[in-house]
Write a structure and sequence with these properties.
With 155 residues, the chain is of the alpha+beta class. It has one domain (2-153). Helix content is 43%, strand content 15%. The structure holds zinc ion (ZN). Zinc ion (ZN) binds next to helix 2 and helix 3.
Length: 155
Amino acid sequence: MKTLLALLLIGFMYTASPVAKAAFTMLGSTPTIGGASVVCMGIPTVVVSPLNDIAYAAPAGTMFPFPAILLRPDVFQYPPVLQLFIYAHECGHFNVGPDETAADCWAIKLGRNQGWFTAASFPLLIQALGNSPGNSTHLPGPYRLAALQQCFLAP
Ligand SMILES: [Zn+2]
């Protein structure tokens, strides 16, 4: 418990942390997401509540001394393919950097190439993102979806 508190305080000192008083559940580096065992470069996944976004790619030193994929508990209420997309998007940040569109593109191409995201998955994505107004880092839903579709169709 003392360690946890220390980690939290370190998090606050480093940056405007994405969480306040948080509860953590460590899922390790091969979590089950959307019913599948997944892995992202050995980076551990932690369920964090509360979290101000559905998921977050936390570089070492922001939340923990190590890099981590943070998930809000309600991720697990999404359809499996969206759970996988969200996880892959965060993994994408560790591969392509902070750009949201690049992380989206990386994730959907991975899903296409691995076979868990197909053309038939798009309606679920449209349902989840279609009405999103966007924010300082994310394009509004329709633009984000158009970019995702372009990536899906690109080589
Ligand atoms: Zn992102």
